[in-house]
From TrEMBL:
GO terms for molecular function: hydrolase activity, acting on carbon-nitrogen (but not peptide) bonds. The lineage of its organism: Eukaryota, Viridiplantae, Streptophyta, Embryophyta, Tracheophyta. It comes from Rhynchospora breviuscula. Residues 93-574 form the Amidohydrolase domain. This is Amidohydrolase 3 domain-containing protein. It comes from the Eukaryota. Gene3D superfamilies: 3.10.310.70, Metal-dependent hydrolases (3.20.20.140), Urease, subunit C, domain 1 (2.30.40.10).
Length: 575
């Protein structure tokens, strides 16, 4: 029986004058209109332990979603009026729910390609290294390149791999295997020959060709020297790159990653065109077919800044709900593991080496100045203490010239700093985009290469950066390390690398809350997406992960190692 007829019967039974009942049809109309006009959630999350990453309401029990966005967050009574007959109800029975993780620094398509190639990550001795490559060679025909990477000699504590390791197992196949940080790689003799590298080939600016005691190239190339080989490797096919996007996206979803900041297929020695080709041929292609699985914020090579500025003027930053155009990126130095991070003092284990300044800083400053004038966000790779100081000085000069605005300059990695440098990030509003899991591979190497005192005073200064007012953005640099936010969060909290029975530099441990923010709201802030992502707040995209922990106490005492489910746009994307 309709609301109006119910009310009419009640009024008549109560002896109310009939003139009052003459208005009853309008009650039916009002009730019907209200039911049709009110918002009804498509899906609600109930009985959950929701960490929102929103300071105005840190925790909640329920959440309502419609059209891929969050309608309301709170307790059951808060969202009860949004539940309709067709609303899908998810009862999580206390399970912890977090905002979808944002990885602040990946190379997404490279990561996907790596999963499709020879993966040397985690290899702990020469024998396993050689065996892995041998298996890959068996699948190739003579002349085909064998590609892969991810190796890290710090895991086996031995010599760097050389061409001699590869020549007997791949005499008819050129081989190129990059180190985990992609600032060094090893080629076999056939690859060196194809690339024209001989004992007389000079070191290029910003790189080096390592040689044996006889003066012959030993197969190891550092930073810009890698270009000599990379330029001879056939380009990945379009089909390979598209498949790599799907492989990488599925992998990210298994780890709870719903958004990535993609620095592209651009690194020292690589073409600046790769990132632009991937935008049009891979990302926009997938988007046009409705095949995107995670959101991407794309950064482009700094030399192409004017091209990016024009794109943003024409199209804006948001190309779709999946693709956001970020800013520009370049390199100041190399990496510690490759002995090319730029330092104020020489390497402890190589007293004549101070690292490599990859770029001419006059050019870098000028390009940054003009990019900033065009309103672009700028991100510069800096690992060594001198490189970080030089980039901070450059940023300060740009601000002095162009004036104060919300520009959110970034330094990618910020791994090794002088103690006096950490406060500058907060004071100068520069975002340290850091990778906690790099510490797992770097800790022992840093003590060897920097000396214990210097390493402990300035390595991975997460808490010092926070104390200085900086906002940490967490990432993986995948495929340098695996894309795994839950592991990175635990690393930042505990700082216990493999083989250590104690925290490495315990004063730099961060709280669980700060670590979670590093992969959620602070990561969103670091790429100007904090109005759309990063917290479970009304109006934002309904991207979230469900963990196996049944209470916040359980999660806080022992953060989960895996996600149970990943939701994007309010829809389950994994498993």
């Amino acid at each position: 029986m309709a609301f109006g007829r119910n009310l009419a019967f009640f009024l008549a039974a109560s002896g109310v004058a009939l003139f009052a009942i003459t208005f009853l049809p309008s009650f039916d109309s009002l009730w019907s209109s209200w039911r049709k006009g009110r918002q009804v959630a498509e899906m609600v999350v109930l009985n959950a332990t929701i960490y929102t990453s929103d300071a105005s309401l840190p925790f909640a029990e329920a959440m309502a979603v419609r059209d891929g966005r969050i309608l309301r967050v709170g307790d059951y009574s808060t969202i009860q009026d949004l539940i309709g007959d067709s609303t899908y109800k998810l009862n999580f029975n206390g399970n912890v729910v977090l905002p979808g993780f944002i990885d602040s620094h990946v190379h997404l398509i490279i990561g996907g390609l790596q999963l499709m190639r020879v993966d040397l990550g985690g290899i702990r001795n020469k024998e396993d290294f050689v065996a892995k490559v041998t298996e890959a060679v068996k699948e190739k025909t003579p002349g085909q390149w064998v590609l892969g990477g991810g190796w890290n000699i710090d895991l086996w504590g031995g010599h760097y791999p050389e061409a001699s390791w590869l020549d007997n197992i791949a005499p008819q196949n050129p081989v190129w295997l990059s180190r985990m940080d992609r600032h060094m790689g090893v080629a076999n003799s056939l690859a060196l020959k194809i690339s024209g590298i001989t004992r007389d080939t000079p070191d290029p600016a910003g790189g080096s060709i390592l040689k044996n005691s006889d003066g012959e190239p030993n197969g190891l190339l550092v930073d810009s020297a890698m270009e000599l080989v990379l330029n001879t490797i056939p380009e990945e096919s379009l089909e390979e790159r598209r498949e790599a996007l799907f492989v990488a996206s599925r992998h990210g979803l298994t780890r709870g990653v719903t958004t990535v900041v993609d620095m592209g297929r651009f690194f020292t020695g690589a073409s600046v065109e790769n990132s632009w080709l991937d935008l049009s041929e891979v990302y926009q292609w997938a988007d046009s077919l409705g095949k995107m699985m995670i959101r991407v914020c794309l950064f482009f090579p700094l030399p192409t800044w004017s091209r990016l500025a024009e794109l943003i003027r024409d199209k804006g930053h948001r190309l779709s709900k999946w693709i956001h155009v970020g800013g520009v990126k370049y390199f100041a130095d190399g990496s510690l593991g490759s002995n090319s991070a730029l330092l104020h003092e020489a390497y402890e284990d190589n007293p004549i080496n101070y690292g490599i300044q990859i770029v001419d800083f006059n050019w870098l400053s000028n390009a940054t100045l003009h990019s900033d004038m065009s309103g672009l966000q700028v991100a510069i790779h800096a690992i060594g203490d001198k490189a970080n100081d030089m980039v901070l000085d450059m940023y300060s000069s740009v601000v002095s010239t162009n004036g104060i605005r919300d520009r959110r300059f970034r330094i990618e990695h910020a791994q090794h700093l002088l103690p006096s440098t950490a406060p500058r990030f907060g004071q100068e509003r520069v975002i340290p985009s850091v990778q906690p899991d790099h510490m797992l591979d770097d800790a022992a190497a840093a003590e060897k290469k920097l000396g214990i005192k210097r390493a402990h005073q300035g390595s991975y200064m997460f808490q010092s950066l926070l104390d200085g007012g900086a906002r940490l953005a967490f990432g993986s640099d995948w495929p340098v390390t695996d894309i795994n936010p839950l592991r990175a969060i635990k690393t930042a909290i505990h700082r216990r690398p493999p083989g250590f029975d104690h925290a490495w530099i315990p004063t730099e441990r961060v709280s669980l809350d700060d670590a979670l923010k590093g992969h959620t709201i602070s990561a969103a802030y670091a790429c100007f997406l904090d109005e759309e992502l990063g917290s479970l707040s009304p109006g934002k995209f309904a991207d979230f992960v469900v963990l196996p922990a049944n209470s916040w106490t359980e999660f806080a005492e022992n953060p989960s190692n895996f996600v149970s489910a990943t939701f994007v746009n309010g829809k389950q994307a994994y498993p």
